[in-house]
Specification:
heterodimer; A: alpha+beta; Uridine Diphospho-n-acetylenolpyruvylglucosamine Reductase, domain 3; Enolase-like, domain 1; 5-stranded antiparallel β-sheet; 29% helix; globular; B: Aldehyde Oxidoreductase, domain 4; Aldehyde Oxidoreductase, domain 4; 2 domains; 4-stranded mixed β-sheet; 11 strands; binds flavin-adenine dinucleotide
């Protein structure tokens, strides 16, 4: 199939993109790497009447160290650019996840901003960004705001982003203290997206008596959208036991069911992934 | 009789048409029976092989009866050496130790055998008629050869490749038959405006049936060239010796004409003996007397993650006997692709419908085709038992990989789950299917 006809505008600056978005109607879509948007336009699941191409806005590309040691990642930074950037190596789970996303072509085109904005229920990166306590910096002609990723996703393909807003950067706080992380997922064999994926960050503050007093567990492929499994996090903080924590991976979540994994199997599978991610994180530093 | 109309996918020819299914049933039955009577899986196959001195072998199924009472026999075979080679390659003796080692890693390891025998080179028209194909198929092939005045050979064939490299293999055969460089053979096919009639490429029949037609046409070219060389060299045709592209008078090796010189003179045709037509242009039709019967042993080794049900194909060994090989690299390519295709059926592929008949695996986002990264490096070896059916002794290889591999993987998966008490499981072995089988066997809630 081919997409329906649409109007195409290329933005030459962020300000111009924001101006175009300011006059946008709900049929307008931002085009970044196009690797989520174009496939659904071809199948006509998406039928935008106008695309605003931000692909050449180099001001949105690249990784910068912030004053507090955190990272600012431009929304248009591709998976490949991230993977090649030494600044991300402290976040072990990013080194786990990035090489598993799609294939070389997908990683050369797909952007971090697109991955966050699209809210695919099975995308790999959003679950990782959730446990890294990422923040989404957005701008519109009206001004700007910074949104914690934990309150950004609203449901499948749905976020709090308003139609005139553009994601300009993703911020990650510094990886500090005894910091350990990992990502474990089983692929849906046809699509390569996560059938069930778990991202974890755990940590110990100095003088905390050897106990892990930080735990973040992010899950993808399982619910309506990527989520933090807070009951599992609490269980890990109190017992330190990966298996006990994993048993709470889907508490309060309506687990998805499809031809690849019904509810029962997907529930079992995500528990395995959460436990293995926690075990892997405990084993390694970073 | 009940007629059924369906708008869901039905079984149809894919690669191997009928033999993958037959092989799957036979190989699964072998394993079930071996387990039932407590015999080693390799041993039960060994005991049931047709003995090497029993060829040509009359298959008691009766399938080999052609019209007019003529018979089709299994052409040639020697099955044990392929089995032995494959068992040695895979280290069959150490299987128990490797299973125990896998358990320490939370994996169930399984090994699956597939000692397939297939029928290909599908041919004799009188046989196809007798087994009641009913749609009036003939099974001969045809070929035309023209030798241009430049000495370039244009071979036009009735078979139609779908990417098997026929341009290369036919060129090799004709280069050998006419003594011209491979590069001087131009192979034309598939355009019905310019090719002779033929029945196509399927049933691994091109090399056995199509090449034989081409060899026959080359023989006619040689005979006409011999007669014309005799005319040019003022000798009797019987006294012309052919060595590659050189046609010389017996006992006088300096009296020689090349195929190109002959083609050139026959094209200009100002000096042609009475009754001889100009040009070297010959067509041949060929209807074989029999099919060909490749065979071999494939062995798959899988490891199953006991918690997720994920099946990992960790080793794949294939010892195939496809008779003589025209081009070993193309043979390997056919085997690689065929094996991958058969593994796909065992592990990933399936048309899934909901109870309303709606197709749920309707795009490649939901229907998983095999990918190179999921497959181990295939370990291939061979035995060579030439077929007596055709002049070059080929048996055919287009489908062998796909015929053998599905059953090998199926047997490996069931073998892996054997310790849990699983006797059989239906394909495809998706993680969910395998996980559920493990849960059920362990008496879990599933
Ligand atoms: C063959 C293939 C395999 C893939 N495999 C995987 C996989 O294994 N795992 C996985 O996670 N993903 C996978 N993907 C998806 C890929 O990661 C996407 O490229 C990515 O999720 C979206 O980024 P993009 O830049 O391509 O976004 P686009 O497709 O350009 O846009 C996606 C959505 O985000 C919006 N958007 C984009 N940028 C912004 C912005 N700065 N501000 C506001 N809105 C914005 C768009 O309007 C659109 O709605 C695959 C894609 C393909 C084609």
């Amino acid at each position: 199939m081919t997409s329906l006809a649409f109007d195409y505008r290329r933005a030459d600056s962020v300000d111009q993109a924001l101006a175009l978005l300011a006059e946008a109607d709900p049929g307008t879509k931002v085009l970044a790497g196009g690797h989520s948007l174009l496939p659904i336009m071809k199948t006509r699941l998406a039928r935008p009447d106008r695309l605003i191409d931000i692909g050449r806005l180099n001001e949105l590309r690249g990784v910068n160290r912030l004053g507090d040691g955190g990272l600012s990642i431009g929304a248009l930074t591709t998976y490949s650019e991230l993977l090649a950037n030494p600044a991300i190596t402290v976040y072990g789970l990013l080194a786990d996840v990035l090489p598993t996303i799609g294939d070389v072509q997908v990683r050369n085109r797909g952007t971090i901003g697109g991955a966050v904005a699209h809210v695919d229920p099975a995308a790999d990166l959003p679950a990782c960004l959730l446990v890294l306590d990422a923040e989404v910096v957005v701008r519109s002609a009206r001004g700007g705001r910074t949104i914690a990723l934990t309150s950004f996703f609203e449901g499948a393909f749905n976020s709090v982003l308003l139609p005139d807003e553009l994601i300009t950067e993703i911020r990650l706080p510094a990886a500090s203290g005894d910091y350990r992380s990992a990502y474990r997922a089983q692929e849906q064999p046809a699509s390569g997206y996560a059938l069930a994926g778990a991202a974890v960050v755990i940590g110990r503050s100095t003088g905390g008596g050897g106990r892990f007093d930080r735990a973040a567990i992010g899950i993808t492929g399982v619910g309506e959208c990527p989520y933090r499994a807070s009951a599992a996090e609490q269980e890990f903080l109190s017992s330190g036991d990966p298996a006990a924590a994993a048993a709470h991976a889907t508490d309060g979540v309506l687990v998805a069911s499809d031809i690849h994994a019904d509810r029962e199997y997907r529930t079992a599978l995500i528990r395995v992934q959460v436990r293995r991610a926690l075990e892997a994180a405990i084993e390694r530093v970073g | 009789m009940t007629g059924v109309y369906t708008n869901t996918t039905f079984v149809d020819a894919y690669r191997g048409a009928g033999r993958p299914e037959a092989t799957y049933v036979i190989e699964r039955a072998m394993d079930l029976f071996a387990r039932e009577i407590g015999m080693d899986r390799a041993e039960i196959r060994r005991r049931n092989f047709i003995a090497p001195n029993a060829f040509p072998y009359d298959n008691p199924s009766g399938l080999g009866t052609a019209s007019g009472g003529a018979k089709i026999y299994i052409d040639s075979g020697n099955y044990e050496p392929a089995l032995d080679k494959a068992l040695a390659m895979v280290g069959y003796e150490d299987l128990a130790a490797r299973k125990a080692d896998a358990r320490l890693r939370g994996k169930y390891l399984g090994l699956g055998l597939s000692t397939y025998l297939e029928v290909c080179g599908v041919a004799p028209s009188k046989w196809i008629g007798a087994v009641g194909e009913g749609w009036g198929a003939a099974m001969w092939e045809s070929s035309n050869i023209r030798v241009h005045l430049t000495g370039k050979v244009v071979l036009t064939i009735g078979t139609s490749p779908q990417g098997q490299g026929h341009e290369t293999t036919y060129s090799q055969v004709i280069s050998h038959e006419l003594g011209v460089p491979v590069d001087d053979v131009i192979v034309q096919h598939s355009d019905t405006q310019g090719t002779p009639f033929g029945y196509g490429s399927y049933g691994s029949r091109t090399s056995s049936v199509g090449s034989t037609a081409a060899i026959k046409a080359a023989g006619k070219i040689r005979e006409k060239a011999r007669r014309y060389a005799a005319h040019m060299l003022e000798a009797a045709p019987e006294d012309i010796e052919i060595d590659g592209a050189n046609y010389s008078v017996r006992g006088s090796p300096d009296k020689v004409k090349t195929l190109q010189e002959i083609a050139f003179a026959l094209d200009l045709a100002f000096d042609t003996p009475v009754g001889m037509e100009p040009y070297l242009d010959e067509t041949a039709y060929y209807d074989p007397t029999n099919c060909t019967w490749p065979f071999g042993t494939h062995i798959a080794i899988v490891e199953i993650d006991e918690e997720t049900g994920h099946v990992d194909l960790v080793r794949y060994v294939a010892v195939d006997d496809v008779g003589n090989k025209i081009n070993p690299m193309i043979v390997d390519g056919q085997l690689h692709g065929g094996i991958a295709q058969g593994v796909g059926q065992a592990l990933w592929e399936g048309a899934v419908y909901d109870d309303q008949g709606q197709l749920l695996s309707g795009s490649l986002l939901d229907y998983a085709l095999p990918r190179a990264a999921w497959l181990p490096s295939f370990e291939l070896d061979e035995t060579v038992t030439p077929s007596p059916v055709n002049p070059i002794g080929v048996k055919g290889v287009g489908e062998a990989g796909a015929i053998a591999s599905t059953a090998a993987v199926a047997n490996a998966v069931v073998d892996a789950l054997g310790p849990l008490g699983v006797r059989h499981l239906d394909m495809p072995y998706t993680p969910q299917t395998v996980w559920r089988a493990i849960q059920t066997a362990k008496g879990g809630q599933a």
